[in-house]
Amino acid sequence: xxxxxxxxxxxxxxxxxxxxxxxxxxxxxxxxxxxxxxxxxxxxxxxxxxxxxxxxxxxxxxxxxxxxxxxxxxxxxxxxxxxxxxxxxxxxxxxxxxxxxxxxxxxxxxxxxxxxxxxxxxxxxxxxxxxxxxxxxxxxxxxxxxxxxxxxxxxxxxxxxxxxxxxxxxxxxxxxxxxxxxxxxxxxxxxxxxxxxxxxxxxxxxxxxxxxxxxxxxxxxxxxxxxxxxxxxxxxxxxxxxxxxxxxxxxxxxxxxxxxxxxxxxxxxxxxxxxxxxxxxxxxxxxxxxxxxxxxxxxxxxxxxxxxxxxxxxxxxxxxxxxxxxxxxxxxxxxxxxxxxxxxxxxxxxxxxxxxxxxxxxxxxxxxxxxxxxxxxxxxxxxxxxxxxxxxxxxxxxxxxxxxxxxxxxxxxxxxxxxxxxxxxxxxxxxxxxxxxxxxxxxxxxxxxxxxxxxxxxxxxxxxxxxxxxxxxxxxxxxxxxxxxxxxxxxxxxxxxxxxxxxxxxxxxxxxxxxxxxxxxxxx
Length: 524
Hints:
Elements: E1 3-5, E2 14-15, H1 30-33, E3 38-45, H2 60-82, E4 88-90, E5 111-112, H3 134-146, E6 149-159, E7 172-181, E8 187-192, E9 212-215, E10 219-223, H4 232-241, E11 246-251, H5 262-273, E12 276-281, E13 292-295, E14 300-303, E15 312-319, H6 337-347, E16 351-354, E17 359-362, E18 375-379, E19 382-389, E20 393-400, E21 403-410, E22 419-428, E23 434-443, E24 464-469, E25 476-482, E26 486-487, E27 492-496, E28 499-504, E29 511-519
Parallel strand pairs: 3-4, 4-6, 5-6, 10-11, 11-12
Antiparallel strand pairs: 1-2, 1-14, 3-15, 6-7, 7-8, 9-10, 12-13, 13-14, 16-17, 18-19, 19-22, 20-21, 21-24, 22-23, 23-29, 24-28, 25-26, 25-29, 27-28
Family: Belongs to the carbon-nitrogen hydrolase superfamily. BTD/VNN family.
Organism: Microtus ochrogaster
Pfam families: CN_hydrolase, Vanin_C
């Protein structure tokens, strides 16, 4: 088992101990030593046994036989985790039944799902209370055997009446559902995925589920699934309306670099909102699906492996009250040369004006006397405006619509690589529709401008830098990825003079992506 710790100033360490004795939130100064209470969590990245033909109609018995193979693996992982004192375990989206079904072909794989808010039920101890609940029964019994909270994802069905105007023609709702069982096997929470990602087999609930559940070891947890992480409902609404400090997050995420790798967005959510994220992804490297982790704002344990075909269990200690990065560590002496330059630039007259064709930014600071050329390149299917980042030090800026992005940087050594600062302010319309504002420092795929935005995972370039922009939203995800799919943590994040900034120095490996990924939910 491979486990990597981020946030350190040394080369990322590889642990072969199952991560069981490693603590998140310890070892980075006095602030973190205040976190005295912890719980032990596990996430399992599962290589699911898939239906050989998900479009083919099958019987309930055949469906149960296939799902049993996945549930057997789940039980093995629960018992392994129990040996390490795990108190909560999270399994991935689609891990039990698989994916690529039609609405009809998935039906035999669906369990009936009563609402835990209306019915108190222990499926393991009351197996005959409801029909078609074999998967729920098995999961409930696992929680009892492991004496831990268990989070899993399955397909569920709910009959509906013809009088219901939303009732599908086949007379039932089908939902992509997360369930939570307590250590005694009781069903304590259910969440039905709201933001479906091209999932024709499932329906969207009429109302958004804002689901929390209480634990005796860490208080209140929230829950959502995969694509939900990019939207206001339920993810942001859940954090605004509750005292949630921990998120359980089943996902089936296909990695897309440079901005939306699985571990990248998981870590960014934890950092942006000051919560712990227990993220379990499916493991199918041939489909680009890998990347799970246990993340706090300051530390992460994660797994990303495109070569190993097997699943992987991560176990780590998590602080019950995670310390956030924003607003706690943003104390820097103004005598620091780079930060002093940053503050001087911000004190200048920044403005962006748009003529008929181009956006022009003016800056009073002296570090931008010889501006590099502006160019355009596609990144994540969006047309980014970019400027090359040349030389050992400098200041560059790029603008798009109302967003101006700025980069102040120094490089200890130069590498034979092209880096660029990119900006995008607009509606993303491929594989989902949502409005974003992005400032991104990225390594390009080659030395040509047209390679900027390509998917790469290896880099050599080291930077000490400030990255900032005049964002129109407070919902900003700090994305930070270094060579070999390694996570890193900013030194500082926060607002200064109506600009949001990220600061980092002392990279231990080459920079792949450093980005501020803003979401303007109201413009979706």
